[in-house]
């Protein structure tokens, strides 16, 4: 069975650059698991879940995009992605491509 882990990457699709300084929270069953900030490459410095801390289940990734874009009353504020993570599926990578008006995501590699 492949060990599982979770990482993320945030890209500012309006400017075509990595989104640095975005607060990212990972929640499971209503409890905060971890909080991190994206670095200059738009990634967190460490995985949100390592093979040692990984537990299968439903998770919420919350990205503070309103704060990143500096728009207190903007269209997007906290972008929330609900994901199901299973054991033995290898590395989960969840990129977020975001502008002040829209976002998209996918399971990356």
What is the compact description of this entry?
The chain is mainly beta. It has one helix at residues 65-69; strands at residues 2-12, 17-18, 23-28, 31-37, 57-64, 78-85, 89-98, 103-105.
* Beta-strand content estimate: over 45%
Classification by helices and strands: mainly beta
Low-confidence spans: pLDDT under 50, at least 5 residues? none
What number of domains?
1
Helix content: under 10%
Write the layout of secondary structure elements.
Layout lengths: L1 E11 L4 E2 L4 E6 L2 E7 L19 E8 H5 L8 E8 L3 E10 L4 E3 L4
Parallel strand pairs: 1-7
Antiparallel strand pairs: 1-2, 3-4, 3-5, 5-6, 7-8
Plain-language structure description:
Homotetramer. This is 5-hydroxyisourate hydrolase. Catalyzes the hydrolysis of 5-hydroxyisourate (HIU) to 2-oxo-4-hydroxy-4-carboxy-5-ureidoimidazoline (OHCU). Belongs to the transthyretin family. 5-hydroxyisourate hydrolase subfamily. Its EC number is 3.5.2.17. The protein is mainly beta. The chain has one domain (2-105): Transthyretin/hydroxyisourate hydrolase domain (Immunoglobulin-like). Helices cover 5% and strands 50% of the residues. The protein has one helix spanning 65-69, and strands at 2-12, 17-18, 23-28, 31-37, 57-64, 78-85, 89-98, 103-105. The strands form two sheets. The protein has a four-stranded mixed beta sheet, with no helix packed on it. It has a four-stranded antiparallel beta sheet with strand order 4-3-5-6. A hairpin with a 2-residue loop joins strand 3 and strand 4 (31-37). The protein is globular and about 45 Å long. The relative contact order is 0.29.
